[in-house]
Amino acid sequence: RVGEAVLEPDPGCVSDGTGLPRIEIRPWEPALLIRAPGQQPIPLPCPKDSSVEARLLPDGETALIYGGHGAVEGGFVWFVEIDSLAIRWRHEASSPVREVWVEAPEGPVVAHTHDGFEAWISGRHRRLPHLGRAGALSPSGRHLATLSDEGVLQLWDLEQMRIGPPEAEGFPTCFDPSGQRLLSGRRIYDGRSGRLLYEIHAASGEGGSARPWFHLGERYLISLHGRLQVWDTQGGLSLMVGAQVSLPQWYAVAYDRAGAHLAALRIGGTEVVIRSIPDATVRREIHLSSPGRAIAMSPDASVVAVAGGGTVEIRSVADGARRLVVSHPIPGGMRSGSSNDSLRFSSDGRRLASCLEPDGWRIWSLEGEPVGHHPGPRGLERVAGFSTLFPGDWAIEGRGATVFHHLPSGVRLALPVAGPWQSNPASPACIASDHFHLELCVP
Q1: SS in 3 state form for 330-380?
Q2: Residues 240-252: pLDDT tens digits?
Q3: Peptide bond preceding 47: is omega within 30 degrees of 0, i.e. cis?
Q4: Which entry of 106, 219, 241, 440 is 20 to 30 Å from 365 by CA?
Q5: Residue 15 and residue 12: Cα distance in Å, rounded?
Q6: pTM attached to this predicted model
Q7: Residue 435: which of 418, 414, 411 has the closest Cα?
Q8: What is the pLDDT of residue 162?
Q9: Do 190 and 228 touch, CB atoms closer than 8 A?
């Protein structure tokens, strides 16, 4: 019958007609479980200082709890027994979780995160780096439907989703800081001509890795997937690492321009360990004045910066001495968490940028003088020394496909692929994505 729908109770849902038990959500506080009329609300388990969403599963015995560890940090999916408040399953996501589809805790679990979709199936973590705006799980739990911002509906077989974090399938496309090398998947190319130079044979590992989990330096390529692995970018050879080093997801790391140094900070800790690459020997242990959550290293590896809340310490790598302390203003009601995407040195190493939401980016010189304020998480995109260069007379349009617009002439070049696109630092008209390496030019 056109224009009519019949609504029937879900036979799998347990209800006695009272609407209890039920869950109430509170901003930035644990969700509350109300079991029976007149009983005091009970806080449900959740990670500390997290944003939380929660609901009861159809079995009436399990609470689904999910959210993020901060505005830009990782996410989580927990299953909690409402009688005992015991946590039956825990899943960690790469970014905050927006929505979860699940029928039962032991079955397939699919999460819509800020970075795409992630699934946990038969004990394996799978990732689909597809930035859809909505999704739905099939009744069989075998397929995922996604809807993109452009209105494109796609159907995915969950068995074909990436297994583990993105590094298990190779490296994301990027140029090294000099533009001489281009990394994509498991291959290194000449950054200018696109000629294939080397194949990279990386060992896979289990569990999450510290972020950023890889770095293409001018001398070395570093991967932290499973364990520390190093390759010579000039010869493509896998290099022997002197020590077995494993840095899981509760560490934040930073690298220098060459890839010859690695700095590691346990998130919430007060010690930074500096290692030389490729042998992984400890060069310096630096003890901080207060706990840190984000770390950055200057291009020449002379100093490291560590942020914790609104305080940023800059320390010398040579002797660990404190060079400078700056404070990022924290307006009332603003969260003071930091992530490793929120602290950066400029390409010349003379400035440091820190981001806290919703204040945005603050930039200081290494003498402590404030030199800029750029609102919003994307405030550095056009700041010289921090942004990824792109030819100034070209603009990129489109999302499901890519249109390159030459502004002076009005010429438009279309490709049936999406980005993201990376620009060669030494020759910005040479750009690359996971599918193409090309040079923008107009006849």
Answers
A1: CCCCCCCCCCCCCEEECCCCCEEEEEECCCEEEEEECCCCEEEEECCCCCC
A2: 887 789 998 889 9
A3: no
A4: 219
A5: 10
A6: 0.62
A7: 418
A8: 44
A9: no
- Burial (CB < 10 A; 0-12, 13-18, 19+), residue 113, is buried
3-state secondary structure of 158: helix
**What is the phi/psi pair of residue 168, to 5°?**
-65, -25
Task: Check residue 70 and report its DSSP letter.
Answer: S
Element (H, E) at 117: strand 116-121
Rounded to whole angstroms, how far apart are CA atoms 213 and 205? 12
Distance between alpha carbon 326 and the CA centroid of its chain, in Å?
26
Q: Which residue is it, tokens 């452009």?
A: 150
Both tokens of 321, joined, read: 């001495």
Say how far apart CA 55 and CA 25 lie, in whole Å: 9
Phi, psi of 394 (to 5 degrees): -120, 150
CA end-to-end span of the chain = 60
| Residue 33: exposure state from Cβ atoms within 10 A (0-12, 13-18, ≥19) | buried
What is d(CA 232, CA 255) in angstroms, rounded to the nearest whole number? 15
| Closest listed residue to residue 249, CA positions, set 90, 64, 83, 439 | 90
Question: How is residue 388 written in tokens?
Answer: 């990824």
How many whole angstroms separate alpha carbon 356 and alpha carbon 363? 12
Element (H, E) at 273: strand 271-276
Phi-psi region for residue 239, left (φ > 0), alpha (ψ -120 to 50) or beta?
beta
* Look-up of token digits 């400029």: 346
Q: What is the pLDDT of residues 291-348, one digit of tens each?
A: 998 999 999 999 999 998 788 999 999 999 999 999 887 665 444 444 545 899 999 9
User: Could you tell me how far CA 35 lies from the centroid of its own chain?
Assistant: 37
Instruction: Of 286, 372, 357, give the one whose Cα is nearest residue 326.
Output: 372
